[in-house]
Design goal:
Strand order of the largest sheet: 11-15-16-14-13-12
Main location: membrane
Radius of gyration: 32 Å
Family: Belongs to the protein kinase superfamily. Ser/Thr protein kinase family.
Enzyme class: transferase
Shape: elongated
CATH architecture of the largest domain: Orthogonal Bundle
CATH topology of the largest domain: Transferase(Phosphotransferase), domain 1
Subcellular location: Cell membrane
Bound molecules: 2-acetamido-2-deoxy-beta-D-glucopyranose
GO molecular function, one term: ATP binding
Structural class: alpha/beta
Number of domains: 3
CATH superfamily of the largest domain: Transferase(Phosphotransferase) domain 1
Largest sheet: 6 strands, antiparallel
């Protein structure tokens, strides 16, 4: 009787003591338990990691700082741990050292690891990790030791922050890595492999592929594979806003990929919204924007590929040798371009001012149908209030005098540029042709002097074929 009363008392005492204990594991401990549930701990090595503890300081592999009981180091090398490294590791904000060498860890490095401000040692060598090395590791200013050797990492080693201070011994045996520290050039001129949104770490690294309204009937994998293969040989042009590549899909459809390196200050959100708008604009005489790929270092815009290239090229370079533009073709180009421009001015809401109408922005398809390109880009990339010289360097011949003066683009300045384009079609001369620039004139001034001297026939490009001056005057100049 006495004995059982004592036992009961002991039980009650134990019970009351254990209540407050069970509900107070430190946040570090909670985060480590999250880690544990990610690791497939087949051998039960982490069985000492228990939820009922106050703190994780007695757990296998865990070392704390006293008296604050914050976790300072985690040493779990050679523990046959499977599974991914969960991003919750970032919650142990006081971590100095992570030793996870020689396990079977899978997946990629969570970029959140870059938030561990005090981290000095990171050893993830000899696991099954893959994906790219997150640039966020470069932010770890205290990092002194890094070993990512013998995994399956790929892509370019980001040359940022502290990451650029580690040498080849930190990256041994990752066959698909490239970059400065291991003295291996990254394939192609684009450095694409490093940044394209491959499966796992898509959102986290700021990379993203968007296609508009099923306009690009291929899987993301196929598009990304093709983008990755783009190389210097695929460059088909370069303009004010970036380099243009030709991308050919397996079904031999071709697309133009415009790589834009310059970035307007401001959020990606705005950029994406604007692109959505541009992607929704469809007209037979406008170049179709089919999608884009956003990378930390650049944006890739995917457009229709137009086989005959730009009017500028066709009119002034070798394009004409085999099939010179006759009068009818020029008419067709003028009218089509006008329709495209009119659509931007009158049928889009809000109105789109092109700001850079010129022959190199008129692209021709195989049947010489013109397509206006680069609309919306000036505003998107430079902004409303930008200095005009930064927008259209090199295209002064097309600029309306008032646009040059006050830098404000309007529908009217577009129409002026379009007028210059018409003159270019008629005369076959660039607006900066030496024959009038030498005399201090632009194409408009040149025409005016000829008009005054009744010598207007001289302006017509001989390659036009037979076209009476009266017909021409009726069509264009009156
Ligand atoms: C990690 O910290 C965040 C707040 O910083 C918290 O919301 C989250 O629950 C924590 N996760 C774990 C597993 O403790
Ligand atoms: C855990 O690892 C074992 C041994 O490798 C494997 O058989 C099992 O499927 C894994 N479980 C999970 C949930 O990954
Ligand atoms: C690392 O680079 C040094 C030269 O900088 C070279 O001698 C050494 O062989 C390289 N080691 C490995 C593992 O590639
Ligand atoms: C990293 O680990 C690899 C493979 O175990 C080893 O060869 C290399 O020397 C280590 N690097 C450093 C910096 O300790
Ligand atoms: C525009 O740029 C030119 C040359 O870069 C500079 O001289 C001019 O002051 C700038 N104007 C404005 C309004 O910023």
């Amino acid at each position: 009787m006495k004995l059982s009363f004592l036992a009961l008392l002991a039980l009650i005492t134990l019970w009351t003591i254990s209540i407050p204990q069970s509900s107070s594991l430190t946040p570090d401990g909670e985060a480590l338990l999250e880690l544990k549930s990610g690791f497939n701990d087949t051998k039960g090595l982490l069985r000492s990691w228990k939820h009922k503890d106050h703190n994780p300081c007695g757990w296998l592999g865990v070392t704390c700082h006293f008296p604050d009981l914050r976790v300072r180091s985690m040493a779990l090398h050679r523990n046959s741990l499977h599974g991914p490294i969960p991003p919750e590791i970032k919650n142990c904000t006081e971590l100095r050292a992570i030793y996870l060498r020689a396990n079977y860890l899978q997946g990629s490095i969570p970029p959140e690891i870059g938030e561990l401000d005090y981290l000095t040692i990171l050893d993830l060598s000899s696991n099954l990790l893959r994906g790219t090395i997150p640039p966020s590791i470069g932010q770890l200013v205290n990092l002194r030791f890094l070993n990512l050797s013998t995994n399956f990492f790929s892509g370019e080693i980001p040359n940022v922050g502290v990451l650029s201070s580690f040498r080849n011994t930190s990256f041994v045996g990752n066959l698909e890595l490239c970059g400065l520290p291991i003295q291996k050039l990254c394939r192609g001129s684009l450095g694409f492999p490093a940044v394209l949104p491959h499966s796992e770490n898509v959102a986290s690294q700021g990379a993203k592929l968007v296609t508009f309204h099923g306009d690009l009937p291929y899987s993301s994998e196929e598009i990304i594979k093709k983008l990755e293969q783009l190389d210097e040989e695929d460059i088909v042009g370069s303009g004010g806003f970036g380099t243009v590549y030709k991308m050919v899909m397996d079904d031999s459809s071709a697309f133009a990929v415009k790589r834009i390196d310059r970035n307007r200050e401001g959020s990606d959100q705005i950029f994406e919204t604007e692109l959505e708008i541009l992607g929704s604009i469809k007209h037979i005489n406008l170049v179709n924007l089919r999608g884009y790929c956003k990378l930390p270092s650049a944006k890739l815009l995917i457009y229709d590929y137009l086989a005959l290239g730009s009017l500028d090229h066709y009119l002034h370079e070798h394009g004409q040798d085999d099939q010179p533009l006759n009068w009818n073709a020029r008419m067709k180009i003028a009218l089509g371009s006008a329709r495209g421009l009119a659509y931007l001015h009158h049928d889009c809401s809000p109105v789109i001012i092109h700001r850079d109408i010129k022959s190199s922005n008129i692209l021709l398809d195989i049947s010489l149908e013109p397509h206006v390109s680069d609309f919306g880009l000036a505003k998107l990339l430079v902004g409303d209030d930008a200095n005009v010289t930064t927008v259209v360097a090199g295209t002064f011949g097309y600029l309306a005098p008032e646009y040059l003066n006050d830098g404000r683009a309007t529908e009217k300045s577009d129409v002026y540029s379009f007028g210059v384009l018409l003159l270019e079609l008629v005369t076959g001369k660039r607006p900066t042709d030496p024959c009038f620039v030498r005399r201090g004139l632009n194409v408009v001034g040149w025409l005016n002097t000829l008009n005054g001297g009744d010598r207007l026939e001289e302006v017509i490009d001989e390659k036009c074929g037979n076209v009476g001056i009266s017909k021409l005057l009726k069509r264009f100049l009156i």
